[in-house]
């Protein structure tokens, strides 16, 4: 199946959207030549001559496969995988437990302070089910994983989520909350929605992102 066909089927985007998306990926690949595509220029400016490696944010509703993709991508690219949920627990970057939502109340300021140096250095893959509180300048690429509702329901049920948590997360996916949040928080040319229903999707997403990382220019080359 063509990328544009599955895009239409799963995301409701037109073929033109996907042609444009693929063109953008090609632009990213060709920007090491220094021929200033809009995206290439944006990335260079964001890198600001400081970051030698890109920062990627992988976001999406819980259960869409962020940690799975980030782990594989970090392994292949040797970038640093930062699982924000784990970091919050390890370093107590929260304001206690929310019984109703059944999760920690993340302290966004503490998280941003904790991550600032690493993000300035570059070379990070940040894994979190939210994206609107990170500084926009941190990321060169924002991946939003999306999963079919029935598949996601099964994954989250297997985790033993209680009913309210399960339905909150499924609603979040149905209404594409994370995609909207990403588009509102980052320039649209950085936001990459990616389907994450099956193993083939994992392989394709990791391959696409690996390619993107490998072609990200060092400041000295740009
Ligand atoms: N594309 C996929 N195809 C099949 N199974 C997948 C896929 N992505 C993830 N999974 C499986 O779904 C489950 C949830 O994946 P994962 O823990 O990576 O999600 P997550 O987005 O990191 O969730 P959370 O936000 O709760 O940390 C795991 O059992 C994983 O193996
Ligand atoms: Mg995870």
UniProtKB/TrEMBL annotation:
Gene3D superfamilies: P-loop containing nucleotide triphosphate hydrolases (3.40.50.300). GO terms for biological process: ribosomal small subunit biogenesis; rRNA processing. It catalyses: ATP + H2O = ADP + phosphate + H(+); AMP + ATP = 2 ADP. ATP binds at residues 63, 65-68, 159. Keywords: ATP-binding, Cytoplasm, Kinase, Nucleotide-binding, Nucleus, Ribosome biogenesis, rRNA processing, Transferase. Its EC number is 2.7.4.3. Signal peptide: none annotated. The keyword rRNA processing applies. Interacts with small ribosomal subunit protein uS11. Not a structural component of 43S pre-ribosomes, but transiently interacts with them by binding to uS11. PANTHER family: ADENYLATE KINASE ISOENZYME 6, POS9-ACTIVATING FACTOR FAP7-RELATED. Broad-specificity nucleoside monophosphate (NMP) kinase that catalyzes the reversible transfer of the terminal phosphate group between nucleoside triphosphates and monophosphates. Has also ATPase activity. Involved in the late cytoplasmic maturation steps of the 40S ribosomal particles, specifically 18S rRNA maturation. While NMP activity is not required for ribosome maturation, ATPase activity is. Associates transiently with small ribosomal subunit protein uS11. ATP hydrolysis breaks the interaction with uS11. Belongs to the adenylate kinase family. AK6 subfamily. This is Adenylate kinase isoenzyme 6 homolog. It comes from Flemingia macrophylla.
């Amino acid at each position: 199946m063509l990328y544009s066909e599955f895009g239409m089927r799963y995301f409701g985007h037109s073929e033109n959207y996907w042609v444009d998306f693929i063109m953008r990926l090609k632009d990213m690949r060709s920007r090491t030549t220094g021929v200033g595509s809009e995206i290439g220029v944006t990335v260079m400016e964001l890198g600001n001559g400081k970051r030698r490696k890109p920062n990627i944010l992988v976001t999406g509703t819980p259960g869409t496969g962020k940690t799975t993709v980030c782990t594989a991508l970090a392994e292949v690219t040797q970038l640093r995988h930062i699982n924000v949920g784990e970091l919050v627990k390890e370093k107590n970057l929260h304001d206690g437990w929310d019984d109703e939502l059944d999760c920690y109340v993340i302290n966004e300021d503490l998280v941003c302070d904790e991550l600032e140096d690493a993000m300035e250095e570059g070379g990070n893959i940040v894994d979190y089910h939210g994206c609107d509180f990170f500084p926009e300048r941190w990321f060169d690429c924002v991946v939003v994983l999306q999963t079919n509702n029935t598949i996601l329901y099964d994954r989250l049920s297997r985790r033993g989520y209680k009913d309210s948590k399960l339905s909150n997360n499924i609603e979040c996916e149905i209404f594409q909350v994370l995609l909207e949040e990403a588009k509102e928080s980052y320039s649209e040319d950085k936001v990459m929605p990616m389907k994450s229903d099956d193993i083939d999707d994992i392989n394709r997403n990791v391959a696409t992102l690996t390619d993107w990382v490998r072609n990200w220019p060092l400041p000295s080359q740009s």
